[in-house]
Here is the input.
Amino acid sequence: MKKVLFTLLLVLLFSTMFFAQGPKYIFMFIGDGMGTTQTNAAQIYKSTLGNAEVPKLNMLTFPVQGMTTTYAANAFITDSAAAGTALATGYKTNSGIISMDPSLNTVLETLAERAKALGRKVGIISSVSIDHATPAVFYAHQASRSSYYEISRQLVESGFDFFGGGSVRYPTGKQGDQENIFDYAAANGYNVIQTQSEYEEFDAMAKTAEYEKVWIMNEEVDSGSAMYYALDKKETFDLADITKTAINYLDNDNGFFIMVEGGKIDWACHANDAAASIEDTLAFDKAIKEAMAFYSKHPNDTLIVVTGDHETGGLTIGFAGTQYDSNPELIRYQRESFDIFTARLNELKKAGNLNSFEQDLMPLVENAFGLYLNSSNASNPDLILSALEEKRLRAAFDAFINGIENDEETYLLYGGYNPVTMSCTRILNQKAGLGWTTYAHTGVPVVTYAMGNGQELFAGYYDNTEIAKNLFALLK
Ligand SMILES: [Zn+2]
Here is the structure.
């Protein structure tokens, strides 16, 4: 009997030791603005593309899910700085603050900093500019998320092994009188890669690269220094490509911590553009697949956590005008993001080539959104404008050409965006049965998904600070 007990004790001890071993490789994926509906809309959209057996989004196949509250220290509806700080440090702070406490007296240690201190390699990736709030909370500490140049200095000073994605907002500061940040990075040991050809060269040898530290940015970025919307995909690397590059480069026996942000889901949802949001959610999900491929090779040593920092736009499946009907396949008629369409409108207006609603505007609307004035050439009868929709679009065109009012009603209608663009996305989304309630964030909880060593910690209903606390506990 004694012998049996002793053996049992040994087995217990051994298994405790075994299970106490945390994951060597940790992935944290943050879908900015990605609530349950953003994911659900992407899944529904995928299901309409003619494939009877549509597989689930990668993140939806994860074995563990939890519901996560997102509020900031000073607001029920958070911003990305406060939500990111909670996810990166385990502490609540006020909106706008980057990994410091609300009094600004305490610098909060981040998961990435702890991982680095423990000898892991660290990679930070974002589809928006790398000095934006969500990536910044992992390497910077600032009173204001708008201190872009100071944040980019702290990026260089972090000494993290890999940065990738968009560029920076102000390489030489807001006044253009500061040291060029890329020179500063190069002087501090970073191999700074800014073209697609250099990226491809690096990617081909990422597994054996000898560089000390790498900072890769996409050659094609928009006016906000972010990568283009997946809907407007260019020829350069996408979020999945750069994630795979990071994995190859950072893979080592001591392990790594990699954070990947799908940043433009949020931007699309601010603009109430469902098509852009869906395509960026799918691009984010494709990046998750790269982590899953790594996981399948190291299942005992890897943990993947996917979450949203908050929901944006108040997106829902259902609209008063369509009641119980929905028609999500209409979303695929949209060929470009609100951003590209708005730039096109502004250019034509400036050149004096946007005068007639029927002759000048409608061909553009047909091309970009598939919306038609009458049935003569509509590719889908569901895309013909109703009398009310036509009235709204004409009013928006009038506002755009003759000047927009600065009043409450105008804000509710267009949210500060181009009135024509906003009307087009709004009409198309509503025809599809999708509704929006705000141009800002909302306070609804988001879903957190987990797979791998430590996954069980992420089941249940908990606050976003718990995600970081769990990861700190697993980082040993
Ligand atoms: Zn936002």
User: Anything to note?
Assistant: Residues 274-297 form the longest helix (24 residues).
